[in-house]
């Protein structure tokens, strides 16, 4: 495709997005922007979700993005069409958790935004495998003239092989993914609902499954109940909407978990590139090895 060709991309709503030429000023949801960066595309700006600070991006989600060089458009109620268009993007890349609804933007904002600029929506929900999500971002990046280096795929293959070998060990260390929710409780992740956790399960990692009950993605329990699951490794949500681990020092139950478990930082909205995924697998492998 040369620079004067009509650019087209069919997104995960089944909607064909087109432009008179290949877009170069990409405004993206922060997770999408960090993923595209790993493929060699520098977004002109990123925006957050209603969980995020409207003034600064959540660094748990930004991956390797050069934040000094990429503008932050804001998050939540601070995002209106005028704000989103202020950087003059020629493409918006958003994510969805199913049903085609744009995550992080009010429905009316998303609707009116699309009247001014092409919008591509990538589904990052539990209906997709992480590999499928990654391939959709890779295909979008290729349409924009960039591609993740082949060395990243080799890094990922090596990380998968290492983790698979460690998980096959005799001890079957129990791994619990959770999001701290204050001094008294935690949200325990249901592994089947999170594409990145399903990868760990496929590689043989012994992920703790919370008891059945309310909550499709999470099971909310007290810290003592979380500790009773005897995790050897804890994947702890480090996004800004989760309670910082440093604030849990006064919780006896959390302190007990920390004494016996390796704690690995976890971002439930992962950067969906091979290199970022390899880094996460390496952290889990390091914890299991220790």
Textual characterization of the structure:
- Keywords: Signal, Transport.
- InterPro entries: ABC_transptr_periplasmic_BD, Bact_iron-sidero_bind.
- Its main location: other.
- This protein is α/β, with parallel strands linked by helices and 290 residues long.
- The chain folds into 2 domains: 7-143, Nitrogenase molybdenum iron protein domain (Rossmann fold), CATH 3.40.50.1980; 150-289, Nitrogenase molybdenum iron protein domain (Rossmann fold, 3-Layer(aba) Sandwich), CATH 3.40.50.
- Helix content is 31%, strand content 20%.
- The protein has 9 helices and 13 strands.
- Strands 8, 9, 10, 11, 12 and 13 form a 6-stranded mixed sheet that branches. A 5-stranded parallel sheet has the order 5-4-3-6-7. A two-stranded antiparallel sheet has the order 1-2.
- Helix 5 (150-167) packs parallel to helix 9.
Keywords, please?
Rossmann fold, ABC transporter substrate-binding protein, ABC_transptr_periplasmic_BD, signal, Bact_iron-sidero_bind, 5-stranded parallel β-sheet, 6-stranded mixed β-sheet, 2 domains, transport, 9 helices, alpha/beta, 13 strands
Strand content: 15-25%
Radius of gyration: 20 Å
Q: What can be said about the biggest beta sheet?
A: 6 strands, mixed
The count of domains is: 2
Give the class-level CATH name of the largest domain: Alpha Beta
Which residues sit in consecutive blocks of at least 5 with pLDDT less than 50?
none
Q: Give the averaged pLDDT, no decimals.
A: 94
**Structural class designation:** alpha/beta
Name the helicity range: 25-40%
Shape: globular
- CATH topology description of the largest domain: Rossmann fold
Which series of helices and strands comes N to C?
EEEHEEHEHEHHEEHEEHEHEH
By DSSP (H or I, 4+ residues per run), the number of helices equals 9
Annotated CATH architecture of the largest domain: 3-Layer(aba) Sandwich
* Span between termini: 49 Å
Care to count the β-strands? 13
Give the full name of the CATH homologous superfamily of the largest domain.
Answer: Nitrogenase molybdenum iron protein domain
